[in-house]
Write a structure and sequence with these properties.
- It is a single chain.
- By secondary structure, the protein is an all-alpha fold.
- 75% of the residues lie in helices and 0% in strands.
- It contains six helices and no strands.
Amino acid sequence: MIIPMLPELFTGFIVALSQSTPTGLALVESAIDRAIKEIETATHTLKPADFDAHAFIPKPAFGTADRSAELALHHQRAHSVMKETLDGVLEDLHRFKDACALARADIKGVDGDAGAALLASTRAVESLGNADTDHGDTAYDNAVQSAAGADGADGQGA
């Protein structure tokens, strides 16, 4: 399954928002509903625990050659970085979905008055812009730093 990227969902929302009129806000609400549905599908598909269980290769699987232990160590570190990054991405998806729901709630309150429609549209865009979605990047950076610190501790280097 291909999961659409958030910028693609956001772009669709912005296009619908820019074309909205007081009577066309249903289009914006529809775009938000589609974005929320895609995020829910992605969050059900993206399971960091499954990645942790199925993608990990145990140390004995690397064999007994001279460099096997070092290869197993680097695999473990890379696996840890990926797992923490997936956890962060999942958190980002949940926060973006919540921001979409807030945007939808603002739009539902619009009664047809052009000023109210403009205010709701502005709030919807601001809600999406204020979503804290940097957990994936932060988790990745922290995991890489942890792995780099472990390299210095055991003296083996990357």
